[in-house]
Amino acid sequence: MTTPRLIAIGDVHGCSHALDTLLGAIRPMPDDQLVFLGDLIDQGHDTRDVLERIIRLEQECRVVLIQGNHEEMLFAARKNEQALRYWENCGGVNTLNSYHFGGGLEHIPAEHWALLDRCLPFYETNEFIFTHAHYLPELPMNEQPAHQLRWAMFDPAETLPHYSGKPVTVGHTEQKSSEVLDLGYATCIDTACWRHGWLTALDVRTKETWQASRWGLMRDTDEPSHRGAVPLWAGRHVA
Known about the structure:
alpha/beta, five-stranded mixed sheet
């Protein structure tokens, strides 16, 4: 019998082609568990399609969603005009346009709000810890400050093992080299898909890695000379 996989997926940021390609390569089975590390939304142009795909994915396998700082900003945007403008300037306009060009928060359907409302601040198993941004090594996960979980930057020079001894997997801090940053006890898999990098998925038990570009092309991980490469026809546009 095949052992169910536990797979972390980095910051999707509205890149639906990358997500579709990645899921096609992973081919999740019903008992597999996919942990999305947050920032499903904003920056890229297809947030609506990303959320629709995840809703379908929940019928195919076990899905865990972690809240990122962009989801936090979206919910804050419902409270006042200042928070709305701040979120829009951080990639929120692209999210709104994915529903209705020039639209507003009212164009986001209730089903999508409900999906994002199910996001957890972190996810912890008997063996592993997952969160969006970072952690304080001396604190249990349920005592971590919200800012640490969603906004703190992952600095390898300052990062220490969590006192529990469990490896931690995070996103949030873009690895501009497009390479996974693996310290052994902590791993960052935000490889800047919405820019010119890759959307990364990592089987935390076996370390098998899948990467897809925002244009929906799989990366050949056996060819390191292709690191950070983008198709010549894709241009150099930044979303």
